[in-house]
Amino acid sequence: MINTFVVIFLTVIILKTLWDITLDIMNLRYSTNPNAKIPDVLKDKLSQEDFEKAKKYLKDRVLFGVVRKLTSLIVDLIFLLKVFPYLEKVLSDKGSTIFQAILFFAIYELIDYLVGLPFSIYSIFVIEQKHGFNTTTPKTFLKDQLLGIILTVAIGVPVVAIATLLLVKFQIWWWQLSILFIALMLFFMIIQPLFIAPLFYKFTELDDEELKKKLRVVLDKSGVKVPNIFKMDASKRTKKQNAYLTGIGKSRRLVIFDTILSYNHDEVLSVVAHELGHHVKRHIPKLLVINSLLVAFILCITNILYKFILNTGVFGLTQPYTTFIYAYTFIISIMFFLEPIVNYLSRKMEYEADEYSARLLGTSEPLISSLKRLVKENLSNPNPHPLYKIWHYNHPAPEERIRRLEELRVQNG
Ligand SMILES: [Zn+2]
Fold first, then answer.
1. 3-class DSSP state of 306
2. Neighbours of ion ligand 1 (CB under 5 A)
3. pLDDT tens digits for 178-210?
4. DSSP code of 313?
5. What is the helix (H) or strand (E) element at residue 243, kind and residue range?
6. Half-sphere exposure of 178 (CA within 13 A, CB side)
């Protein structure tokens, strides 16, 4: 019985990574095969040279991703089979369970961070650099890392302490833990734009007065109250372009990446109108509800497995925090197979926001042209594999978005 469970446990974890890698390779072969063509709707903006560049970028990222994922799998297996049981034993006489849990997670996070660090460095300073996106200096990188560590400790320690307390106190803890995690999600939504993002980026008033005036007109038309319009110095880290709307009430802010200011005004307005679409169609609260239900569901079945692991003594674990990690790792690996459902909902929302943008501005032209620029300038993959899209794409492929927008144009006459 116990051995059967260990076999199932390891099989699921390994299969998850293997399936993930299979999808990556399938996507790479599909997108870069000699017969792959530039989609019709992109032909006017995407040259053969752009197309080749996008394929090279994809190849580098996929090969990097495969190595990264295999390394993670090996590290996870070593942790689960050797390091965790060993750490648990070593820490067993070091004070209260809560203190042990904090030490345990600190050591685990540190090793995990050190394993991931070379990959972060390679991704930014080799891959992004090679393809002309990176603008991060080593100094900015170091600062980001330090800030990240400080934030992880400041937030991680109290969260681990409270979560462990709940695990120790209750047999059935899934709903208490769900409340903790959902509260944390809400907390982040509020503090992220106000306190965390400004640690990493500089936010200043948008200095293009004409654009600001046009933005105000669009904001008024949508009826969304946005007290602040900021420019963010994204160009300190990347050349990629974006804009977003975040925060609630008086702290609500529209943030424009300085990198997108090379777009013409109509294009910027169309991207902002898309963001407003998410807001007007209440996508953020909808996603919050979906994510909260998902958290509660995951923790509920984790709780069942947790009791099973404790009762059967499989893996020989004695502590609540280690038992939780095993149960949670298993459930999360299974949840990977539900990812297409969440991404389907997300893609639906993106179409709605695109449609909103086109209706608000009375034209889909500028959004179509900014999507084309995004593909060209961000080297997006013009030909993703259909199954890969179903699995991983939380946005529809640009080609599909453009086609849908062109249909709208036809309908409107
Ligand atoms: Zn969107």
1. helix
2. 350, 353
3. 999 999 999 988 888 889 999 999 999 998 999
4. T
5. strand 243-246
6. 18
